[in-house]
Amino acid sequence: MKTMIEFTHFSFTYRSQSEPTLRQIDLSIQEGERVLIVGPSGSGKSTLAQCINGLIPFSYPGTWEGNVRVNGTDARELSLFDRSKHIGTVLQDPDAQFVGLSVGEDIAFALENKRVARPKMSHIVERVAKLTDVDHLIDSRLNELSGGQRQRVALAGVLVEEADVLLFDEPLANLDPVAGSEAMALLDRLQRETGRTLIVVEHRIEDVLSIPFDRIIVMVDGAIIADDHPDAILSNDSLMNAFLREPLYVSAARWADIAVQPKDRPSDLETFVTRFEREPILSKLEEETVTIHQPTSPLLELEHVQFHYRQDQPVLERIDATFEKGTLTTLVGQNGAGKSTLAKLLSGYKRVSSGTIRLNGEEITNQSIADRAKKVGFVLQNPNHMISKQTVHEEVRYGMQALGLSDEEESERLEQTLRRCGLYPFRNWPIQALSFGQKKRVTIASILVRQPDVLILDEPTAGQDYRHYSEIMDFLEALKQDGMTLLIITHDMHLVLEYSDQVCLLHGGRIRYAGDPLSLLLQENLLHHAHLKQTSLFTVARHLDMDVKPLLSAVIRAERKDRKQWQ
After folding, report:
1. CATH number for region 298-536
2. pTM for the complete prediction?
3. Are 167 and 49 in contact (CB under 8 A)?
4. Which percentage of the chain shows pLDDT scores above 70?
5. Per the database record, which ranges form the ABC transporter domain (predicted)?
6. Residues 460, 472: contact at Cβ < 8 Å?
7. According to the model, what pLDDT value does residue 132 have?
8. What angle do CA 394, 395, 397 make, to 5 degrees?
9. Residue 312, burial from CB neighbour count under 10 angstroms (0-12, 13-18, 19+)
10. Band of pLDDT at residue 200, cut at 50, 70 and 90
């Protein structure tokens, strides 16, 4: 079998770093293989991907030791342009690689550079657009597309080059659960039809394993600690040693004292679910105790809130909602449902068209942004839209500038917040040297340091590995216990189930559901509208013909208990 990518005793150190980011990498990837590369933030998995596609050393210089060969050729002899003929890359943020205004223009860009004749170009664009299911969007503008559609267009732009290897850097990071499932199904179909080598860098393991892979490569601290078939990786401690989250059904098996062995094919849910037996599970559940959320007092109230840009185009209609003091509410719904607009109304970035907003019984509907910001903090989804300073500690300290604190108080808050957000080791780092996930933690810290009464976060865990996801969410839960009210916009069903006291589902500009998260997951029609999906434990519960609620609660509690060893 032909070797497409080969690393031999390879190490790489960024120019700005004193220690290598990649250490003694020995790795071979064959033609037609499906390889999943996983690891926590800072493990080196993205750096490894950049060494494959040529961004290192052409865009990110540093010291290169050892050898890398691409399709049999020394990588140092290939220009970035030549490398792109072999390696097609779809970045975590598809917008970063768009060059056209419309779908058709962007797909055709590489062909135009090669001066391909127009009739042939049109044929290729139509063929690739159909292959990636965007043929009906050829004339659409890129800024009008959903996250999943943009990713498909980025893939189409790569496919016209007919590269031998398709490399995806965290393809699920900015997609809702349904779009993520569709994206993985598309990759599965493309690989089957073309036979190309598929490399996926991701840490949402359960979602990625909705399609089969030949190998999982696990990275920690710049080194490969495991490289084996997915069934072997899921059967040992490799994921736990890398601070990564196992598929929920595997965690359920361990909670139920079911041996997880390669021969049982744990990478395939439909096969592995037969290992669960009803009576032992029911017996195990009898040992569990359930804590019921006790209502407190309303802190934030919305009454008949409406918002529209034009009178005949309402974005939000008659929103009535109550958020209790010291609770965490998740806002869910597909793109365009009105979640971010609602957050902007609450934080004062936009004014309601009609209706009333009250905080602690006081009407704040028409407060200025400055006054509102003293009580309501809003962390945006894209960290680059918030960051204005050069270093981590400068950015977080800047959030306290208008509070009138003493230097001693500022320093104490700064250190406490940096430590709790996992940023203290990076306090003197330049912002530009951080990963996307690390930048998100910086923006969260810059708002948390102000200690608001209400904190609104737009997708705070997107791009975070399991360890940092847990640290941030456990920190937010501690804030909740201290009386802070939290509203989180998310597509992450693990977050919804594990942490939220209430979930509000928005669809068509209205709240269609407000209540218990587990009850929402039992309503498949609502889930469909919100572009959400049930977790793998629903498959286990259906197999056992039992209520999923106690099972889900028990497994999540067991996971949380196991995580304590990391902290």
Report:
1. 3.40.50.300
2. 0.82
3. yes
4. 97
5. 5-246, 300-533
6. yes
7. 85
8. 65
9. exposed
10. very high
